[in-house]
Amino acid sequence: MAIYLDHNATTPLDERVLEAMHPFLTESYGNPSSVHGFGRHVRRAIDNAREQLAALVNAHPSQIIFTSGGTEANNMVFAGLAQRQPPGRVLISAIEHPSVLRGTQHMDSQKWQIETVPVDQAGRVETDILAGMMDGQTRLVSIMAANNETGALQNVEALAARCREHNVLFHCDAVQALGKIKVDFAASQAHLMSLSSHKIYGPQGCGALVVDKSVDMAPLMYGGGQERARRAGTENVAAIVGFGRAAEIVASELEVNRQQLTSLRRLLEQRLQTIEGVVLFATQAERLPNTVMFAVEGVAGETMLMALDEVGFALSSGAACESTHGEPSHVLTAMGVPYELAQASIRISLGRGNTAQDIESVVVALKQQVLMMRSVARY
What is the pLDDT of residues 146-204, one digit of tens each? Predict the structure, then answer.
C-alpha cells in the first residue's frame, strides 16, 4: 500500500466531513437564494458553515466570503482592489504561491507597480526591510503566513502592524497555516486573509477570503449578489458545508495534531541526517509542524521522486501546480540556495494519518535509492 507524504498539496477527505456533505449531495438540493423551505434549509447550512469557519480563525461570520479555493481568494484581492483604488505599488514577498505571483501580473497593464520583497536565508521577511520599502504610493502588501514548500512561518502580526502604521492594506495567504497552527484573523491585524478547504481534510474546490469591514474591493464576479455581493453565483453548498465541518473538527483537534506532527517531523529530520549529503532547508526559521524540505547533494530531485513513487511513496518537490515546469523552486532560489541544490529539492509534508513507521520506511527507501543512483553515476 502506498504511503502518502504530500499533505501540503492536498489532504484526504475526512469521513466525518463526507458525512456532513452527503445530504447536500442528495435530498437537500434547494437553491440557497430561494425563499421556500428547501432554499431556507440550505441557507441555514451555509450560515452554519460560515460560523464554523469564522470560529476557527477568530473572525466575524460576516467577514467570510466563500470562494472556489485559495487561488480565487488570492486573485479576488488583487482584482478587487485594482478596481477600487488608484494605481500604486503592491509589495509581495519573493516566496509567495504562484496564485499571488501571477495574480498580480494583470495589474501591470493597469499602471500598478509590483515589487518583490526579499527574504533571508531561512525564507523570512524582515519587518524593517518591508517598512523601508513602503512609501506614500504603496497600496497593498501580500505576504503568506506559512510557506507551502519549506514550512517557514512569517511574523504576520509584526508585518501587518508595520503596514497599518503606513496606512497600507495587508493581505495574508494563510492557506498552508490553517489547520496546522493557530490562525487568528483579529489578532493578526491583517485586512484580508485567504483560506482553503482541501488543506484541512475538507473537499477540494472550496475556499474563503476573510475581509475586514474597512476594506473596499470590487467583486471578482457579478451576478445575483451572493456572498454579500462580493462573489456572485449559486454557492457550492455541499463543499461549503464540508469546509465548515472540517473547520469545526480542526478547531477541536488542533493541539493534539500539532504535537503529533511536530514529533514526527523531528523524527524525520533526525533520520534524514543519517543520509550522506542531505541538506535541510529553513531550519533556522519557525516552521509548520508537518513540513520538511531537503535535498541530497548530487541526486536529481525529480528522478528521486519518480523512483520513490514506483516503490510506493508519494512526495513532491514543492507546489503541486508548479510540478511540471522543471525549474528549481523559486522559494529556494529566493533564499539563496545554489541552482543545483535547489533542483534536487524534495518536500515531505506529513498528515494526521502518518506514523513513525512511515518515517522509517521512507528513509530506508531514500537510502536505497541514493545508493543506487550514486553507484550508477560512478560508471
Answer: 999 999 999 999 999 999 999 999 999 999 999 999 999 999 999 999 999 999 999 99
- For 23, residues 6+ apart whose C-beta sits below 8 A from its C-beta are none
Instruction: Report d(CA 290, CA 244) in Å as an integer.
Output: 23
Measured between alpha carbons, how far apart are the two ends of the chain, in Å?
Answer: 34
pTM of the predicted structure, to 2 decimals: 0.95
Distance from C-alpha of 351 to C-alpha of 201, rounded to nearest angstrom: 10
The H or E element that residue 164 is part of is helix 156-165
Q: What is the DSSP letter of 231?
A: S
Give which of 113, 135, 129, 186 is closest to 143, Cα–Cα.
129
pLDDT at 263 (0 to 100): 98
Q: Taking the CA atoms of the chain, what radius of gyration do you get in angstroms?
A: 21
CA dihedral in degrees (119, 120, 126, 131; nearest 10)? -50
Q: What is the DSSP-derived secondary structure letter of residue 321?
A: G
User: Maximum Cα–Cα distance for the chain, whole Å?
Assistant: 75
Q: Nine-digit cell at 323?
A: 510540478
CA dihedral 286, 133, 218, 160 (to 10 degrees): 40
Q: Which residue has the cell 463543499?
A: 239
Q: How do residues 255-299 score in pLDDT, each as one tens digit?
A: 999 999 999 999 999 999 999 999 999 999 999 999 999 999 989
What is the DSSP code string of 24-93? GGTT----TT-SSHHHHHHHHHHHHHHHHHHHHHT--GGGEEEESSHHHHHHHHHHHHHTTS-S-EEEEE
Domains identified in the chain and CATH numbers = 3-10+254-365 (3.90.1150.10), 15-249 (3.40.640.10)
Amino acid at 236: N
Q: In this structure, what DSSP letter does residue 329 have?
A: P
Helix-strand-coil split of the chain, %, nearest 5: 45, 15, 40
Measured CA to CA, the distance from residue 96 to residue 78 in angstroms comes to 14
Pairing of strands 138-142, 169-173: parallel
The one-letter amino acid code at 152 reads A
Which is the catalytic residue, given 163, 172, 206, 321?
321
CA-based nearest residue to 263, from 161, 358, 344, 194: 358
76 φ, ψ (degrees, to nearest 5): -60, -35
For the question of residue 321 being annotated catalytic, the response is yes
